[in-house]
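so my prof wants the structure for this chain in the tokens format not the other one, which i didnt know existed until like an hour ago. anyway here's the sequence
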Amino acid sequence: MAENLFRGRGARGADKDRPVIVRSLGSMALLLFLLASTACSKHTATPDGSDPTTATDNVAPAISDANPPEECVDRGKAAADIATQRDHGKKLPEVLADIDKSALGASDKAIHEDMARQLYTDPFASKLSADNAANNFQGSCVADLKSKSSNIRNITNEADIERALALFKTYSGQPLLDLLGSNGVSVTALQVAPASAMNNGNYKADDTVYTLTVGSSAHDDIPCHLQQWLKGDITPTPEFVQRGPAFPLIRPSDDDPLIYWAATGKCSTAFNN
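here's what i got, hopefully its the right format
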């Protein structure tokens, strides 16, 4: 999920690839040549007449795991501090009392209190070391900010999920949530993203990509042996595409079997049932 923070691309070149004038210069002349070239390039005007050294001064750096905003770094440090206190025997009520008495604003207090509860009570987070807690919560913060900047919507309210999926055309004519629910499949969250926000996938520019988070309590008699697909060690996150009036776009080779069945009433042959 996280990007490789240290991935880079080094430039390599051989002497023969350099301009003849550079290869023929001695070390001192080369230095003077490079300094002159650099000075010249710094003062070359952009097409609108502006100085290129200031043209991008006001462009905010892209949010990424390699370039996390300060608030995410601070959140990671706070998570590490809470995990350290937990590992040293401090009780959750004491940590929450310290947060309440701190100089943090109301919204930051709520965030820190939620982190503390997770780090003490969540089956996964309660086992995180201080370093892993820092990485986990910093990464989560970065992902949230990237989602907001990319117009990604993360929906957890049932009524809002129902509205967002109202136009999904099921084979039976039922609303998607009703069709899934009648087979024991609950939808606990929905992500709605423009194609431009997706890292990969065969999408067109105007596509909208939907990703479901589903419960794993499918009925044993759900068609197409879907209970086997839904009850694995990792619950699938079915994805589907809206392209113009096609909602969903039927993609026999790419659709998750749950979505393919809901849209067509047929069993997917792209997955082993």
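also thought this was worth mentioning. The longest helix spans residues 130-149.
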